[in-house]
Design goal:
It contains ten helices and 15 strands. Helix 1 links the parallel strand 1 and strand 2. Helix 2 runs parallel beside helix 4 and helix 4 runs parallel beside helix 5.
Amino acid sequence: MTKNTIWVTGAEGRLGSALVQLLSQDIDNKVIGTDKAEVDITDMDAVDAAMDVYHPTVVINCASMSDPDECEKNMVEAFKINTLGARNLAMATQRINAKIIQMSTDDVFEGKSGIRLTEFEFPTPKTVYGKSKLAGEGFVRELNPKHLIIRSSWVYGTGRDDFMTKVLDHAKKGESFEVPMDVISTPTSALTLAKFVEQMIDRTEYGIYHASCEGSCSRRSFAQYILKSFGYDERLAEGVFAGEKSMSTLLENLMMKMTGIYEMPHWTDDFDAYVQRHKEAK
């Protein structure tokens, strides 16, 4: 008997693909993964039609325009995907009494305060990406009481190109590259984040949860750790200062710690496990 019918949007991305793979391992789940080609979440009629066909008990929205530079160049498209798409899914899930899990980001914070950011800090994003994701959060909160908003940071893994992929591309060519030393956050693997999301599907926990690994590092330190882990020269990652783009977004998983639902690993342990899985898969 099917326990949950779970619709994952953005299923070809890093987190979406990890979620589809993980959730499909439970034979009691019916997992439907879609990307824009199957269902365009910015089209309300398409979302309503899909909802009536799939009849999900839970929708996990991983669809996102997440490249900050692309968002700055294409503000309308960024808000269309990150805000309007979230609104459409929130309205449609509320109509059929389904739960919505909206995936969000540490970029909803400006990153200039220097403090660890709990779920109760007031977000003041400065980028189009951050503003569009925060606006999407707002629609989800307002339109479906059965909502869960999960923010994470520096998610890496399978799917589209990410920071780790770019670092390794340079390394394979023996190219040095510049990485900021004053952009600080916490790397989190897509699988570890997916495992937390899995834990929340059947719970009656609603609201905002932060879900990043423990610890922190700069972009340069992360690049050096990637290089070292895969046997490349750490000196390929040349440190520079980001200037006005410097930021520190250290998410504190306060709700997770208060409820005792889950415990995120330290980011280095998480990355070591990722590298081990990568080597075993070869």
